[in-house]
Design a protein that fits this description.
This protein is of the alpha+beta class. It has a domain at about 1-80: Beta Barrel (OB fold (Dihydrolipoamide Acetyltransferase, E2P)), CATH 2.40.50.140. It is built from seven helices and nine strands. Strands 1-2-3-5-4 form a five-stranded mixed β-barrel. A four-stranded mixed β-sheet has the order 6-8-7-9. Helix 1 (about 90-105) packs antiparallel against helix 7. The radius of gyration is 20 Å and the shape is elongated. The N and C termini lie far apart (about 50 Å). The model has no long low-confidence stretch (mean pLDDT about 95).
């Protein structure tokens, strides 16, 4: 049974029996992995309180081929991100990123994905209160692109024409991109030029300062429903919406 040591980010934790935990990890060199942390819930566990969501460190795994659940041998803490748990919006935003990765990631090396998720969690954790939502929605759209689901905002899905910079379009959630007015015939969601530019910038990971981001959350919800979640809304996205309403 080979031993693998890799940079790892804990995305999800749940108890297994009275003494152990199961972790869902995003690793830098081995993609998504599930691992059993034996004895992690014991009072004198060597892991202490380290194995929590969004904790980052170096994980050592006993890996067996053709087995979904591996065994955690060790975890060296690098960053706990406790501040995410102190604010409901920050925690909900981090949970959204984790859920998207868990739904779409794979057990393959993807250092860029790992580095991107880590970077966005750092920004969500450290940004000023008034900037958290902007970083969260940008992170979500950027992550969608990194995972290969980016909408086509450059040309009409039906006729292939590139709209002018001042031309209004409509967002087709089902098709996964934009439609010109002639092809849309009233279908889809209105996407003015400034909104299309903002959405494209978010997809590139560029923060766009806006007074309101509600429309971009709506577009994200509908897009993910058709292309990622097989017809259901993400629980973390609903949770984030409730957290934003309370703020």
């Amino acid at each position: 049974m080979p031993i693998v040591t890799d940079a790892a980010l804990i995305l999800q934790v749940y108890p297994y029996s009275e003494t152990s935990k199961i972790l869902r990890l995003l690793t830098r060199g081995h993609g998504l992995r599930s691992a059993m942390a034996r004895g992690a819930l014991r009072p004198r566990s060597r892991y202490g309180g380290v194995l929590e969501p969004f904790t980052q460190g170096t994980a050592t795994l006993f890996v067996k081929d053709n087995r979904e659940l591996q065994t955690l041998s060790g975890f060296d803490l690098e960053r706990s991100r406790q501040r995410l748990g102190d604010d409901l919006v920050r925690f909900a935003a981090a949970s959204l990123l984790a859920e998207v990765v868990l739904l779409t990631g794979a057990e393959v090396s993807d250092p860029a994905l790992y580095d991107g998720v880590v970077s966005w969690l750092d920004r969500i954790e450290s940004s000023a209160v008034e900037e958290v939502e902007g970083h969260a929605v940008t992170a979500a759209w950027s992550l969608v692109g990194a995972l290969g689901f980016a909408p086509d905002l450059d040309r009409c899905l039906r006729c292939g024409r590139e709209p002018g910079p001042d031309e209004a379009t409509r967002f087709d959630s089902t098709g996964g991109g934009i439609l010109c007015d002639a092809c849309a015939a009233g279908a889809g969601i209105q996407l003015p030029p400034h909104a299309r530019a903002a959405l494209a910038a978010m997809g590139r990971g560029e923060l766009v300062a806006l007074d309101r981001y509600a429309a971009y959350w709506t577009l994200l919800d509908r897009f993910l429903t058709y292309h990622v979640t097989e017809g259901r809304s993400l629980r973390s996205l609903a949770f984030l919406g409730e957290a934003l309403e309370r703020r």
